[in-house]
From TrEMBL:
Claim: Disulfide bond is one of the keywords in the record: no
Taxonomic lineage of the native organism: Eukaryota, Metazoa, Spiralia, Lophotrochozoa, Platyhelminthes
Pfam family, one: TFIID-18kDa
UniProt main location, coarse: nucleus
Keyword entries, A-Z: Nucleus, Transcription, Transcription regulation
UniProt keyword Transcription regulation present: yes
GO terms, biological process: transcription by RNA polymerase II
UniProt name for this protein: Transcription initiation factor TFIID subunit 13
InterPro entries named among the record's database cross-references: TFIID_TAF13
Annotated TM spans: none
Localization terms from the record: Nucleus
Cellular component terms (Gene Ontology): transcription factor TFIID complex
Top-level division of the source organism's lineage: Eukaryota
Amino acid sequence: MLHFQTRKALKIGRPGKISVEDVTYLVRRDPKKFSRVKELLLLSEELRRARKAFEEDEYGVLK
């Protein structure tokens, strides 16, 4: 199933690259998969912010 979805995503977007939008587009009609993708994207964003805050704190630079 994943192999099939990956091939479809490659056909939709730019050749050779799969973007987040491509994956989101493919699973948009499956509520369970769509909510999981959204959840993972939110978690990824939270982790990115936490890493950035940690690096700023580590170097003594706070915003």
